Amino acid sequence: MATTPVPATTETGPPPARSVLRDTTFLRLWAGTTASGLATWALPFVLGLAVLHRELGAAGLGLVLAARTAGFLAAVAVGGVLADRHSRRAVVLWSALAAAAAAPLLALGLGRSLLVMTLAAALAGAGQGACRPAFQALTAEVVAADHRQQANAAMTMAVRTSTLAGPTLTALLAAFVDVGTLLLGIGLLWLVAALLPGRGAPVAGSVAGSPAPAPRASLRAEFVDGIREARRHPWFLAGLGALTAVIALGYSATGVALPLISRDRYGTGWVMAAAMTAYTVGALGGALVTARRRPRSQGWSAFAGLALYGFAPLSLMLPVHPAVVIAAYVVAGVGIELFNVPWFTATQREVAPDKLARVSSLDFLLSYGLAPVGLALIAPAIGAFGVTPVLAVCAAACFLVPAAAALAPTARHFGRTPGPRAH
Predict the structure, then answer these.
(1) How many helices (H) and strands (E) does the chain have?
(2) Any alpha helices (H) in 196-269, and if so which ranges?
(3) Residue 13 and residue 141: Cα distance in Å, rounded?
(4) Can you tell me the distance from the alpha carbon of 132 to that of 20, in angstroms, rounded to the nearest whole number?
(5) pLDDT tens across 80-99, in order?
(6) Is 301 exposed, middle or buried (0-12, 13-18, 19+ CB in 10 A)?
(7) pLDDT digit string (tens) for 164-174?
(8) Measured in whole angstroms, how far is the alpha carbon of residue 74 from the centre of its chain?
(9) pTM of the complete model
């Protein structure tokens, strides 16, 4: 499969024997990504504290969080186009600065103006959405091809650690500072995400001595061009469909059912907390495994990992000991990273470099964008049919859709050739 050549600077880098964790440029990018992850996961928790302190109502919280999601979805596609059109580093800078600017606006509106908070949340979501595909493409620029799986594993470990550390650190700080100060602290984290990462390789066509670039098409035309690039890779379309199904059905079903079952079947909230923690711990373990694991059929292995999420809704269907539920969530967490890390690495390897951010934005747009739809439908479905039939359908989807996706052309190796290819 022909792809656009990678800029020469991408091929130079540390020798294969050297760990990517010793590369200063990557560590700066990793630290910036970690800061953005902490800010992202801390914000809903801080807003929840505002509800507890009666500075924000429950309806207001829902509106603010919905505005953040809308901002994310509106910006992620535009961010992907801009990151392919301009410097990926510049897109990270300006999108993270936008999210940083939203934090003091949230603090200003707290307890005073729900409109200001809603607009600020939309700005925060837009900054978060625009930087996601840019971070993904920037990783491919600063890390040599034979180090990317290790780099992506380190990135996903940062994300998973943030899901634990963000709310935990926020809860600790809440004992000493008020909600407005915590919001300003989130803004500082976004400043770190904006300023810390270094420059990547030049965007294709921008190297010295290259011909003058052709006039740019519209944002819409370039986004459509990204869709066209995605369609050239059957394994990507199959994987995106499977991931979207697991998130929209599996994640949504367990997100609604786990609190209900923890309360009604086990009579305590600790099962829910333990299961969610177990999922994150399992994901961290999965990332550690994939940092060095190179299966011969990486696509099939990744789809098998994704299907493991089916054990989470399956465990909630049955009157089992809480330890079984917790173990199922550990397995689900391991499996999701057995998929994510090779998926990101293959996308960086197989997709044309000058379209990478746009294709990555499709990933975020569909997998994250359809999750609220799943949440909106699962709760009424549970009310109409009962929790067990809904969980059964969602568990079956988690097992069967990845299995079907594995049958797509080029899915076995996440590309047309087994293993990494020379660019």
Answers:
(1) 17, 0
(2) 219-231, 234-245, 252-264
(3) 11
(4) 21
(5) 898 888 888 999 999 999 99
(6) buried
(7) 777 777 778 87
(8) 16
(9) 0.81
